Amino acid sequence: MIQDKIELLGTELLKDKNKLKIIDHWLGIMNWPNGWHYDLDIVWALRYIEQLNLPKGATIIDAGAGLGITQFILASYGYNVISLDFADRQVPRFTKNIFIVEKASHDLKGYTHEYMEFMNYGQKQVVNEKKKRGFNSFLKKMISPKRFGLNIYIAKNLFKKILNLRYIFELMRDHSGFGKITFLRGTFNNIPLSDNTADALISISAFEHNTYEDMPSSIGEFMRVVKNGAPAFITTSASEKQDWYFKPPKAWNFSRNTLSSWFDISEESVTFNYREVFENVIHSKILEKRIPLSYKLNADNGLPYGRLSDAQYLPVGIIKVKK
């Protein structure tokens, strides 16, 4: 039986090669990079979802889903996914003719949040930057040795957008057993769904981007929208000692005491051996090989320049069952 729990996500999760293969399959089709620790988060969540033995057609809420691949993996399992996010999203190009994705309208009534701009994935900022610079200065920067690795990364992704063979091959498969995905715009502390809507809720590395003062009420909303006896599986960012705000990614990192208090989970159900898990993470060859190039070219992230030894936080998983 699944019970309330808080646990740091260790590298033993990477031994699940089947789930890593599933992750890589859909990342390739969507032509999308993964966060440095998302393999851990997704494998952890999928393991517990499988333990529920939910029938096809069951409803799962993916809170803070963005355009992440977890929602598509769950839909490929046959679940109907309510993909909740406070950003206005367009249906990804490489989902067409594979998934049924619908958009549900909802008025946020003027709600704004500084993280919303991140859901544009930098596109607006890049366009504006190009307009400000002359073509010659832009070209000079693009061909500089310092940009070589990034240029290769951009070129490879551009080629995949033009000719995505994985997507083409996937189109040949039978998707009749896939579930439907509904893009629903809403906030964590005011989810536009009725009580007892879902058979489960997941949230992959999104909770930390919420407004700090709204965290407890958001947990209450998670519990409201799942059925009695149903669980919420939430991954977020853990700090070793105290809560702190990481400004570049606009994300909070939470202490053991804070998570235990907010989720009302007793100490005996908390596994928070931070130093031990950190040592396993920084020495993981599998994790090191799977770090996206984008991290290695940037210092303003949770893994500066892709160095595991400089990880700013650890992923943590929280299970909360509605009583």
Structure summary:
The protein is an alpha/beta fold. It contains twelve helices and eleven strands. The protein has helices at residues 17-30, 38-51, 70-76, 123-132, 135-142, 148-162, 165-171, 215-225, 256-262, 274-282, 285-289, 293-296; strands at residues 5-8, 59-63, 80-85, 100-104, 180-185, 200-204, 231-238, 244-246, 251-253, 270-271, 314-321.
The CATH class name reads: Alpha Beta
**Roughly what fraction of the amino acids lie in strands?**
15-25%
**What count of domains describes the coordinates?**
1
* Shape type: globular
> Superfamily at the CATH H level?
Vaccinia Virus protein VP39
| Protein structure class | alpha/beta
Q: On the 0-100 scale, what is the average pLDDT? A: 89
Task: Report the count of strand segments.
Answer: 11
CATH topology: Rossmann fold
Q: Output the radius of gyration.
A: 20 Å
Helix proportion: 25-40%
Q: Give the biggest beta sheet.
A: 9 strands, mixed
For the record, give the distance between the C-alpha atoms at the N and C termini, rounded to a whole number: 13 Å
Order of helices and strands: EHHEHEEHHHHEEHEEEHEHHHE
Can you count the helices? 12
User: From the 3D coordinates, which CATH architecture would you assign?
Assistant: 3-Layer(aba) Sandwich
